[in-house]
Amino acid sequence: MTMTNPELRRQVINIYKELLNIGREYPLGYDYFRTRLHRAFASQVHLKDEEDIRKGIARAEFVKKEIETLYYLKRYRALKQRYENK
User: Fold this and answer.
1) N or C: which end of the chain has fewer CB within 10 A?
2) Where is 31: in which H helix or E strand?
3) CB-based contacts of 15: which residues, under 8 Å, 6+ apart?
């Protein structure tokens, strides 16, 4: 990423931090999630075009929403199972 657009850099760092925070409850463990996340971001270091970087940020936001949805589904299933047996 070029240093010409600090706003994009800030957005990338923020989404990375948000994903790290979400990954603390990942079923396979935080270390597994962190290494995979780091590898995914490191594979995109070569991007220089602002449009490509914005697409990458959008993809990261989508992944964040998907992970949050999976957590909500897991919580819903656990609650449903608890209260169905009564």
Assistant:
1) C
2) helix 30-42
3) 57, 60, 61, 64
Closest CA to 16 of 56, 47, 69, 76: 56
Q: What are phi and psi of 80, to 5 degrees?
A: -60, -45
User: What is the CB neighbour count within 10 angstroms for residue 5?
Assistant: 13
Amino acid present at 49 = D
Query: pLDDT by residue (tens digit) across 6-50?
Result: 999 999 999 999 999 999 988 889 999 999 999 999 999 999 899
- Measured CA to CA, the distance from residue 42 to residue 20 in angstroms comes to 14
Q: Is the pTM of this model over 0.85?
A: no
